[in-house]
Specification:
Layout (H helix, E strand, L loop, with lengths): L1 H30 L23 H15 L6 E5 L6 H14 L3 E6 L7 H15 L6 H16 L5 H8 L19 H19 L3 E6 L6 H17 L3 E7 L3 H8 L3 H4 E5 L5 H13 L7 H11 L3 H14 L7 H25 L3 H13 L4 E2 H8 L7 H9 L3 E5 L2 E4 L4 H6 L4
Parallel strand pairs: 1-4, 1-5, 2-3, 3-4
Antiparallel strand pairs: 6-8, 7-8
Helix pairs in contact: 2-3, 4-5, 4-7, 5-7, 7-8, 12-13, 12-14, 13-14, 15-16
């Protein structure tokens, strides 16, 4: 009997601890910060776990989609801002919104040394493929694909580039059409291609959206062609829109190309997050993992990141990894800050600085000495003890590399937030 009683006590003890173990695990997990569950995402163009502070832009684009769906005239849209404010994230979110409405979509990333002819052809090919299953007339789709193929293969390129164009194989099995979008003049061809693509979208009862990232890098002649094509669409009300994202001087680039571009696009300038939005970007994903921040920690993080979305994610990711438990405190921020700043110095600032020539680095260091606001080019020249005209190659090179931009005539500024602060911290 004693043996039976011992076995019964052992069984009860085992059951007690078996029931207690999951509760202990839950308690431990709720009080510690697990790096595996780190929700923050400081990646290039990577969507943060909480897209905070962009409600106004999302509502604007929702209006654009709804107006186009109802056959109302609507302008294409341009997003501008510094590096790290989330332009690409917002562009991708817009694309997701269009896809949810069953639009055809395509996206390109502009490059200063590449015509947009073939990238646009590939993007519109993808967009039309999304619409094709809903089109009742396959012959109509094939006719457009023939025009698209002819557009991609046309152009006034040199022999080597032209040969590459004719080897372009987008998976279009139909023969290239002749006499439509194949003149070799990009402005004529792009206008005709957009009109035909909009016609296909009208037949389906949907829209087409072309998304262009790094739009300030589109070559000057191609910018003019893109504006002309959008102008034609705005006049005939076709359901095709262009949504571009670029640096703050993009409106000036468009205006220099076509004077009517100021009225052709709906412009949205995005900047750093306000305090409420920055706190939301931190707290919402953390609380989904049963972690939170003290008010003092939020103060310290906002001071370090200055509200810039990329910096918010970068600091938060490192802080999460070093914090021993929840709530995350200001002391955790103090411990994590050097590591976060080191990572930014290498990946965000340093990689850009390394792309510059010695003369361009001298120009940027002179800008940094003068402060973080836009600075006069004459003041930069004075700081370097040079004539302004002698510094034009360095300035133009930096603009082409996307490291600085012309805020307005005679003024230049960094495209990267806190870049001046980074340069001032470097040894001379």
């Amino acid at each position: 009997m004693e043996l039976v009683r011992c076995r019964a006590r052992a069984t009860r003890r085992r059951d007690f601890y078996a029931n207690l173990r999951p509760q202990l695990y839950r308690l431990i997990e709720s009080e510690t910060v697990d790096p595996v569950r780190n929700p923050y995402a400081p990646g290039a163009g990577q969507r943060p776990p909480e897209l905070a502070g962009r409600d106004r832009e999302l509502k604007q684009f929702e209006v654009v989609l709804e107006r186009v769906a109802r056959g109302r005239p609507e302008r294409s849209m341009i997003i501008t801002g510094l590096r790290g404010v989330g332009k690409t994230v917002l562009l991708n979110t817009f694309r997701s919104m269009a896809i949810q409405r069953l639009w055809g979509t395509g996206k390109i990333e502009a490059r200063p040394d590449q015509s947009i002819r073939r990238p646009v052809a590939s993007a519109l090919h993808m967009a039309v493929r999304e619409l094709a299953p809903r089109h009742r007339a396959p012959d109509r789709i094939e006719a457009f694909l023939g025009v698209l193929k002819a557009f991609a293969q046309a152009g006034e390129e040199d022999g080597r580039t032209k040969a590459r164009a004719h080897r372009w194989q987008p998976g279009i099995d139909v023969p290239a059409s002749r006499g439509r979008a194949d003149s070799g003049d990009l402005e004529i061809d792009l206008t005709e291609l957009f009109v035909d693509a909009a016609s296909v979208a009208t037949d389906v009862g949907a829209g087409i959206a072309l998304f262009v990232d790094e739009m300030q890098d589109v070559p000057a002649d191609d910018v003019s062609a893109l504006c002309a094509a959008c102008h034609e669409l705005s006049q005939n009300g076709g359901p095709l829109i262009v949504v571009g994202a670029g640096l703050p001087h993009l409106p000036a680039v468009l205006s220099a190309s076509k004077s009517y571009s100021e009225r052709l696009f709906r412009y949205a300038r995005i900047d750093r997050l306000d305090r409420e939005s920055a706190d939301l970007a931190l707290l919402a994903p953390a609380e989904r993992e049963d972690v939170t921040f003290t008010p003092e920690a939020l103060d310290a993080l906002y001071g370090a990141a200055d509200g810039y979305p990329y910096f918010v994610q970068a600091y938060a990711k490192v802080v999460w990894d070093v914090a021993p438990d929840t709530p995350i405190t200001a002391e955790d921020i103090r411990v994590a800050a050097p590591e976060a700043e080191s990572e930014l110095a290498v990946g965000f600032f340093g990689s850009r600085y390394e792309r510059a020539t010695p003369a361009e680095r001298d120009y940027m260091r002179a800008m940094a000495v003068l402060g973080d606001d836009p600075v006069p080019t004459a003041a930069v020249a004075s700081e370097l003890g040079r004539k302004p005209s002698s510094l034009s190659p360095a300035r133009d090179g930096l603009i082409k590399k996307g490291l600085i931009y012309s805020a307005e005539r005679g003024l230049v500024a960094f495209t990267v937030p806190h870049f001046g602060q980074f340069l001032r911290a470097q040894p001379a």
